[in-house]
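Reply to dn_fold:

You asked what the input looked like. This is it:
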Amino acid sequence: MIDTLMPDLVGHDHSPSAFLVYLFLWSQLYRAEQRRLAVSLQQIAEGTGLSKSAVQAGMRVLQRRRLVVVTRKSQTAIPEYELVRHWVRRRAKTQGART
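and this is what came back:
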C-alpha cells in the first residue's frame, strides 16, 4: 500500500494530506477488522494532526481518485468510509493468470 500510494498521492497529486487521511482510515479499519468506518472529519483531523480543511481537501482527492467510498445514512449522520484498493484486485488477477 505505502509503495503504491505514497508516490502517487504525494508525488503525482501533490497531496500529502490525502495520503495521511488514507493511512489513518486504513489503520483504523485494520484495528477494528471492519470494511467500513464511521468517523467524523474532526476525528480524522485529530488522528492525523491535520486541520479539518486539510482533511476535507485530502478526502476530495481520495474520492476523485476513487480510493474511498463515502456513504451517509442521512444528511446529518457521521459518514462511513470504505477504502478501495484497486491495486490489490489487479495483483490477485495477475497472479491467478500466471498459475
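Residues 90-94 have pLDDT under 50 and may be disordered.
Hope that clears it up.
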